[in-house]
Specification:
49% of the residues lie in helices and 12% in strands. It has 294 residues and is of the alpha/beta class. It folds into 2 domains: 20-183, NAD(P)-binding Rossmann-like Domain (Rossmann fold); 191-282, ProC C-terminal domain-like fold (Orthogonal Bundle). It starts with 19 loop residues before the first strand and ends in an 8-residue tail after the last helix. NADP(+) binds at residues 23-28, 87-90. Belongs to the pyrroline-5-carboxylate reductase family. Residues 20-117 form the Pyrroline-5-carboxylate reductase catalytic N-terminal domain.
Amino acid sequence: MDFKTPGASMASNGEIEGVVGFLGAGRMAQALAAGFVRGGLVSASNLIAYNPSPAAGEAFIDAVGPDGRLAASPSELAKAARIVFLAVKPQKAPEALASVAKDWRAGEQLLVSVAAGVTLAALAAPLPKGSAVVRVMPNTPSLIGKGASCYALGEHATAEHSADVGRLLSAVGFASETPEKLLDAVTGVSGSGPAYVYTMIEAMADGGVRAGLPRALAAELAARTVAGAAEMVITTGEHPAALRDAVASPGGTTIAGLAELERHGIRSALIEAVTTAARRSAELGQQQPGQGNK
């Protein structure tokens, strides 16, 4: 998707129009906001956040710069911002949404949720009828600008909203619009995926130590090998199997190692990990209250 779509709401200097707010100012909110500033999409003076924890608020300002603002209440935030990111724990989402509902201006504002598992229906239910909402499934590498995110539009979200969200999320990595029904699968691949990769890096490093490498060197080699291999897939556009086959010489070390991985079922284990995480995501979504607008 082209995130420079002309439909995006841009000021003459290329920034997203209006104030961008964060309901919740934890690590993900800080990373997103800092990415927006770094990417030239939002100036620090057009960022505002609310968090009941003073420490989180201070950390937010440290992340975006001294021109960033803190709201004294959710109501102040709702009145100030055109786009509001809901960046709270999923269990806190109903309370957070209720705190801005009375000041929400349907047709003028956009709610973008990064709360895992909270459905579009649950997001829209506490807000006035006709409110535009977008649900995002980010992942933790967004914290360092290497995220892989997908987002789904609610009933009243427009192509312009999609363009705005796409441009903002692309400031912290890759982003793609997808139907909400696919977000559980996205959770299984990219949302939970970093944990699978960390486990693989740890295991590769342990293997290196077992083979005689110092622990620090083994960990560095394992992490950089995973990062480099992933970048090869992205940069070349080649199928992972083709890149794998290019490394596996007949009768060589790599094919011997691959045979051992297959003997232990790594491929089926990863497939099952993704599908099980996706299934759990769907179960959590079904537990969310609120399936209609007031």
